[in-house]
C-alpha cells in the first residue's frame, strides 16, 4: 500500500484558503457603487454617463438633471452588497428609469435586506423597470427621508416571499405595475393567515394604488389572504391620480391595518377585504370624495381569539360600502374571549360606526358576525341593503342618530331635529332595534339612545304606529356599560314594537305600556333592574328575563287590560308579581318567572296561566311564599307546580280560583310551606292532584272540588265544610307527621285510603273526636268524617288461610308458624300443606315416581292462583346444588282447595350411590 505523505505545515493550508476567499469576495467592491451624471446619452451601458461604469450587483446613484429619462440596456441585478439599489440625493432631478432591453432586474440576495431605493429629495421619481425581489423573506426597503416625496414603481414587480417595505418620512409610494408574488407573512390566526406584498411601516406615509394587481397576488381564500399591511398610525391609502379601481378593475387583495388609518382617494376603490389587527378600537376613516368598498373576503374585525372593537368612520359625507361578509375574527378557532357590556350580553365582536358620512352594509347570511354594531355619532347614515345585514329583515334602512356630541366633555345632549329615516322596512337598528308592523315607507322614528348609554326620563314617551317619540330631559351620559338604557320617571309606550335593548333600570314610577291592541310588543333581551317595573296598557307585552342587580327583593306590577308574558330562560331573581289588571302568562323555558317573592292576584278578571314546564312560580319556604290569590284565577293549564302556600293578603278577601283548565291532562299542585300557617277561602277545582308537604297548616275554607287525588306528606291539611273531594279519588297519608283535619260538617266520600302505601279498609275514618267507625288520632284530627268506599281486595293467601281454623292468638302472617313444624305459613301456602297440622311438613308424594328413573312427585299451590314459580335443583352432597333447567314438571288437576300434584322427570337419572332433589318456590 502506498502511503500519503503528511504536510509539514498542516495549519498553513486553511490560513492560505481564507486569504484566497477574502480576495474573491472583495473583488467587486471596486465597482460596487456608480453615480449617474448623464454626460453622453440616456443609456446605462455608456460608461461616460457614470463616474464609475456599473456592473451587475452594483448600487446606483441618480443625481443631477442630465438625461433624467434614461434606460437600462445591460444591468440584470442590483444591490448584491446590502446597499440601496437606487439612490436619489437631494440634488437629483425628476428621473424616469425605463427598460432598454436588459429585461427584469433582480434586487438583492436572499441573505440580506438589500434596500430597493433611498430618497433624499422632494422631486418625484419613477422606476419603470420590471423587478424581481430575491427570496429569503426579506424587507426590500424604500427609505424616504424627505416629507412629501413621491416614488412611483410602474414596472412589474415579483416580490417572491419578500415584501416592499416603505420606511422613513411621510412620503408617497405609487404602485401602478402588474405585480405578482405572495409577499411576506403578516399574521397567523390558527390555521388561517395573511401574507403582504407590501408593508407600509412609518407614520403618516401614503400608498397610492394604480392597477388592479398592484398589490401582488390576489386573495386565495378566507384562510389565505394576500395584500397590503398598513402597520402604524396616520398612514394613508389612496389611488393614483384619483382613478377608480372598482368592479372588474378592483384590487382583489386585503388591507390589513393596525392603527388609525385613512382612505383619502378622490376615486372609488374596491378591495378584496379589510382586516383589523389591533387589540383595541382604532378608526378606519374615509375622507377624500371617493367611495371605499369592501368586497371579496369582507370585513374582519380581528385576527385574535378575543373579541375586539373595529371602527369605521366616513367623514364629511364620504361613503364606506361593505359588499362582502362581516366576520368576528380571522382566527380559525373563532372567538374564545367574548366582549361583555355590549347590548347586555357577551358579544363575539364589536363594529362601531361613527362619523358624518354614510355606511352601506350589504353583507348577507354568509357573514359570521355574532357581535354588536354600534352607531355612535350624529350625522351618520347607515343603509342596510340586505335582510341579514345586521341580523334584521327588510329592505334598506337609513339611520341618523338623534344626538350631538361634545367630544371634549364627553357629554351627549339631545338634538330633537335629528331623526331616523326608515325606507320600506319593518326593522330599524340604532343602539337598540325597534321592529314592528305599521311602519310605512318614509316613517320617522326618534330613538331614545342610539349611543347605547344612559338616559334619564322624566316625561312620558309615546308611539303611534309610525312614530316612536321617546322624550327625555337631561344629558345622555357616557358610561362603562354601553348597550343599556335607564328609564326613570317616565312611560315607554312600545305600541306593538320589538326592542332588542337591555334596560338597566325602571325606577321613579316609570313603566312600559303597549297601547297597540292588535300587535304585541316585545323586549327581546332583558331588564337588569334595581326598581319595580310596571307593565300597563291595553296591548300585550312579552318580556324575557328580568334580573335584579342587588340582593333587595323586587316586584313586577301588572296593570291594564293587556296580557303580559314572562318568558326567557333565567330566574327573574328576587321578583314577585302583583297582578292588578289584565292577564299574565308564565312561559319560561327554564328558571322561575316569579321567584323569591309571592304571586299576588288582586283583580277578579285577571288570570295567571302556566304555559311551560318547570318551576314557573318559586316554592319559597322563607315566609314570602304565601301566594295571595285574593281574586282572579291561577290556572295550571296541565302543568305541575310547587308553591309555598295559598293565602290572601289580609284574610278579608274573597279568594280567587286555583284550577286546571286543560281537560284530560292532570296537574299536580304541591304545597311545600311558607314558614307560617296559611288559610285560603278561594276555590280549588279542576283536574288537579293536591300534595301537601312542609311542617305547617294549610287550611281551605272555601269550595274544594278538584277531581284528582289528595296526598299529605307532612304538616296538616285542613278542609272545611265546602269540601267535596271526588268520589273516585284516593287519599294518601304518609309519615308520622302528616295529618288530615276534617272540620265540622266536612263529611266527604272518596274511593280509597292509604297509610304509607298500605290500603285501608272501607268504612268511615276520622279522629276520636269524630263519629267515624275507624278512629285514628295519628292520622286524623277534627270532628269531620271521611267515608271510604273501597277497601283492599282479598288475596289468594287470604283465601288459603280461610280454609283452616286457627286458635285465638295464632300468628297468621306469612312469617308465622302456628303449628310449630318449622315451616312458615308462606312455605306451607306455596306447597299446599296444612298450617295447623304439625305433621304436614313435606310436599313429597310417597310412592309416586321411580328414583332410579329420575322421577318423583310433589304437591304445590296452583301457580294460576299464587303467581309463584317452581324450580328443580339436584345435588349429590346436599352442598352443591345445580338447577335442572330442562327437567319436565307435569301438573295434575287442581283440587277443591287450590292444590295440585306435579310429576317431575329429571333430565338425567342419578348415577351415583346417592342423589338429592330440591324444589324452590319464588
Number of strands: 85
Low-confidence stretches: 1-31, 391-484
Number of helices: 4
Structural class: mainly beta
> Mind summarizing the main beta sheet?
12 strands, parallel
Helix proportion: under 10%
The chain-level mean pLDDT equals 82
User: What spatial order of strands do you see in the largest sheet?
Assistant: 3-6-9-12-15-18-20-22-24-27-32-34
Work out the radius of gyration: 47 Å
Strand content: 35-45%
Cα distance spanning the termini: 102 Å
Shape: elongated
Q: Care to describe what's here?
A:
By secondary structure, the chain is mainly beta. The protein is built from four helices and 85 strands. The strands form 16 sheets. The protein has a twelve-stranded parallel sheet with strand order 3-6-9-12-15-18-20-22-24-27-32-34, with no helix packed on it. A hairpin with a 4-residue loop joins β42 and β43.
Summarize the structure.
With 922 residues, this protein is mainly beta. The protein has four helices and 85 strands. The strands form 16 sheets. A twelve-stranded parallel β-sheet has the order 3-6-9-12-15-18-20-22-24-27-32-34, with no helix packed on it. Strands 16, 17, 19, 21, 23, 25, 26, 28, 29, 33 and 35 form an eleven-stranded mixed β-sheet that branches.
Amino acid at each position: 500500500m502506498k502511503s500519503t505523505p503528511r504536510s509539514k505545515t498542516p495549519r498553513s493550508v486553511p490560513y492560505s484558503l481564507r486569504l484566497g476567499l477574502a480576495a474573491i469576495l472583495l473583488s467587486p467592491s471596486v465597482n460596487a457603487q456608480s453615480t449617474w451624471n448623464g454626460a453622453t446619452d440616456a443609456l446605462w451601458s455608456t460608461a461616460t454617463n457614470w463616474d464609475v461604469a456599473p456592473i451587475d450587483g452594483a448600487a446606483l446613484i441618480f443625481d443631477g438633471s442630465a438625461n433624467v429619462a434614461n434606460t437600462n440596456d445591460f444591468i440584470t441585478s442590483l444591490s448584491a452588497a446590502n446597499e440601496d439599489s437606487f439612490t436619489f440625493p437631494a440634488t437629483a432631478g425628476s428621473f424616469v428609469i425605463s427598460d432598454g432591453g436588459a429585461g427584469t432586474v433582480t434586487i438583492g440576495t436572499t441573505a440580506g435586506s438589500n434596500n430597493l431605493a433611498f430618497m433624499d429629495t422632494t422631486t418625484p421619481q419613477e422606476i419603470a423597470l420590471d423587478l424581481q425581489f430575491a427570496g429569503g423573506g426579506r424587507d426590500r426597503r424604500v427609505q424616504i427621508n424627505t416629507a412629501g416625496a413621491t416614488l412611483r414603481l410602474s414596472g412589474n414587480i415579483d416580490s417572491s416571499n419578500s415584501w416592499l417595505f416603505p420606511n422613513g418620512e411621510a412620503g408617497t409610494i405609487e404602485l401602478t405595475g402588474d405585480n405578482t408574488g405572495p409577499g411576506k407573512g403578516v399574521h397567523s390566526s390558527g390555521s388561517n393567515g395573511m401574507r403582504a406584498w407590501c408593508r407600509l411601516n412609518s407614520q403618516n406615509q401614503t400608498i397610492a394604488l394604480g392597477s388592479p394587481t398592484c398589490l401582488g397576488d390576489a386573495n386565495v381564500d378566507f384562510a389565505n389572504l394576500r395584500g397590503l399591511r398598513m402597520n402604524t398610525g396616520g398612514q394613508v391609502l389612496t389611488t393614483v391620480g384619483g382613478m377608480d379601481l372598482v368592479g372588474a378593475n378592483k384590487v382583489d387583495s386585503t388591507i390589513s391595518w393596525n392603527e388609525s388609518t385613512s382612505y383619502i382617494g378622490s376615486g372609488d376603490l374596491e378591495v378584496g377585504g379589510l382586516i383589523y389587527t389591533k387589540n383595541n378600537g382604532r378608526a378606519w376613516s374615509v375622507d377624500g370624495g371617493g367611495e371605499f368598498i369592501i368586497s371579496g373576503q369582507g370585513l374582519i374585525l380581528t385576527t385574535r381569539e378575543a373579541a375586539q372593537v373595529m371602527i369605521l368612520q366616513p367623514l364629511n359625507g364620504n361613503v364606506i360600502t361593505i359588499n362582502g361578509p362581516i366576520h368576528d375574527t380571522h382566527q380559525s378557532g373563532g372567538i374564545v374571549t367574548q366582549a361583555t357590556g355590549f347590548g347586555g350580553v357577551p358579544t363575539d365582536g364589536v363594529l362601531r360606526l361613527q362619523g358624518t358620512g354614510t355606511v352601506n352594509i350589504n353583507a348577507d347570511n354568509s357573514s359570521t358576525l355574532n357581535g354588536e354594531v354600534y352607531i355612535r355619532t350624529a350625522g351618520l347614515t347607515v343603509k342596510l341593503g340586505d335582510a341579514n345585514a345586521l341580523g334584521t329583515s327588510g329592505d334598506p334602512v337609513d339611520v341618523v342618530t338623534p344626538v350631538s356630541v361634545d367630544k371634549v366633555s364627553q357629554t351627549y345632549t339631545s338634538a330633537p331635529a335629528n331623526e331616523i329615516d326608515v325606507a320600506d322596512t319593518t326593522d330599524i337598528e340604532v343602539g337598540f332595534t325597534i321592529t314592528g308592523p305599521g311602519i310605512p315607507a318614509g316613517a320617522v322614528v326618534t330613538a331614545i339612545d342610539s349611543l347605547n348609554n344612559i338616559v334619564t326620563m322624566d316625561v312620558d314617551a309615546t308611539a303611534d304606529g309610525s312614530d316612536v317619540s321617546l322624550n327625555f330631559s337631561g344629558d345622555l351620559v357616557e358610561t362603562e356599560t354601553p348597550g343599556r338604557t335607564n328609564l326613570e320617571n317616565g312611560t315607554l309606550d312600545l305600541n306593538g314594537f320589538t326592542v332588542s335593548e337591555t334596560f338597566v333600570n325602571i325606577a321613579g314610577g316609570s313603566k312600559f305600556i303597549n297601547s297597540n291592541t292588535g300587535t304585541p310588543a316585545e323586549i327581546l333581551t332583558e331588564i337588569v333592574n334595581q326598581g319595580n317595573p310596571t307593565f300597563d296598557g291595553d296591548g300585550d307585552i312579552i318580556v324575557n328575563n328580568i334580573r335584579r342587580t342587588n340582593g333587595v327583593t323586587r316586584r313586577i306590577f301588572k296593570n291594564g287590560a293587556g296580557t303580559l308574558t314572562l318568558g326567557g330562560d333565567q330566574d327573574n331573581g328576587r321578583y314577585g308579581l302583583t297582578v292588578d289588571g289584565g292577564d299574565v302568562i308564565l312561559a319560561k323555558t327554564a328558571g322561575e318567572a316569579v321567584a323569591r317573592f309571592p304571586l299576588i292576584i288582586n283583580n277578579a278578571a285577571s288570570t295567571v296561566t302556566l304555559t311551560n314546564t318547570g318551576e314557573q312560580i318559586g316554592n319559597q319556604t322563607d315566609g314570602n311564599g304565601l301566594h295571595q290569590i285574593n281574586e282572579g284565577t291561577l290556572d295550571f293549564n296541565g302543568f305541575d307546580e310547587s308553591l309555598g302556600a295559598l293565602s290572601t293578603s289580609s284574610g278579608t278577601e274573597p279568594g280567587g280560583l286555583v284550577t286546571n283548565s286543560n281537560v284530560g291532562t292532570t296537574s299536580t299542585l304541591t304545597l311545600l310551606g311558607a314558614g307560617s300557617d296559611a288559610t285560603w277561602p278561594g276555590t280549588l277545582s279542576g283536574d288537579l292532584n293536591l300534595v301537601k308537604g312542609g311542617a305547617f297548616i294549610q287550611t281551605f275554607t272555601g269550595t274544594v272540588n278538584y277531581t284528582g287525588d289528595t296526598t299529605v306528606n307532612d304538616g296538616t291539611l285542613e278542609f272545611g265544610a265546602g269540601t267535596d273531594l271526588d268520589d273516585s279519588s284516593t287519599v294518601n297519608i304518609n309519615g308520622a307527621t302528616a295529618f288530615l283535619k276534617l272540620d265540622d260538617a266536612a263529611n266527604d266520600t272518596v274511593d280509597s285510603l292509604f297509610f304509607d302505601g298500605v290500603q285501608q279498609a272501607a268504612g268511615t275514618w276520622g279522629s276520636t273526636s269524630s263519629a267515624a267507625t275507624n278512629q285514628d288520632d295519628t292520622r286524623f284530627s277534627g270532628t269531620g268524617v271521611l267515608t271510604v268506599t273501597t277497601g283492599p281486595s282479598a288475596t289468594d293467601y287470604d283465601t288459603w288461610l280461610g280454609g283452616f281454623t286457627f286458635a285465638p292468638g295464632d300468628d297468621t302472617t306469612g312469617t308465622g308458624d302456628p303449628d310449630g313444624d318449622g315451616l312458615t305459613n308462606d312455605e306451607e301456602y306455596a306447597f299446599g300443606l296444612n298450617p295447623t297440622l304439625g305433621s304436614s311438613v313435606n310436599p313429597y308424594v310417597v310412592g309416586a315416581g321411580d328414583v332410579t328413573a329420575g322421577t318423583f312427585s310433589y304437591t304445590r299451590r296452583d301457580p294460576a292462583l299464587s303467581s309463584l314459580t317452581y324450580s328443580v335443583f339436584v345435588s349429590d352432597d346436599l352442598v352443591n346444588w345445580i338447577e335442572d333447567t330442562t327437567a319436565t314438571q307435569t301438573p295434575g288437576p287442581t283440587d277443591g282447595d287450590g292444590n295440585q300434584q306435579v310429576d317431575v322427570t329429571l333430565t338425567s337419572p342419578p348415577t351415583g350411590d346417592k342423589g338429592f332433589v330440591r324444589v324452590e318456590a319464588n
